[in-house]
Hints:
The protein is an all-alpha fold. The protein has a single domain, classed as Orthogonal Bundle (434 Repressor (Amino-terminal Domain)), CATH 1.10.260. It has helices at 3-13, 18-24, 29-36, 44-54, 58-63, 75-86, 89-110. Helix 2 packs across helix 3 (29-36) and helix 2 packs across helix 6. The model has no long low-confidence stretch (mean pLDDT 89).
Amino acid sequence: MTTNTRIIEARKALKISQKDFAKGMCVSASYLANIEKETRDVNDRFIKLISMTYGISENWLKTGDGDMLFKTPDEKLTKLFNIFNELTPDFQDYGLQQLEQLLKLKKKQDK
């Protein structure tokens, strides 16, 4: 199995469409499609981007060794990714601000 096919496997494991997967990383759908079709090589920068965005192990993407995910995504996390990817950048920023405020409130309550 190649890195390209492991990218497909990871995307499918997260239950994210090719379009939304690409959008979540701010790359074009055609760029991702070419990677998945193996007409474009995968570089370390793209592997790191997938890892940081979706919690996929860099080592697994490169070699196939170890676990695919840093932690198994649950339904809520997958749903959150899908909703977030459908928002425009302004709404994404607003959503992140709201989540940060919720976290601050939680930390305040935990004291």
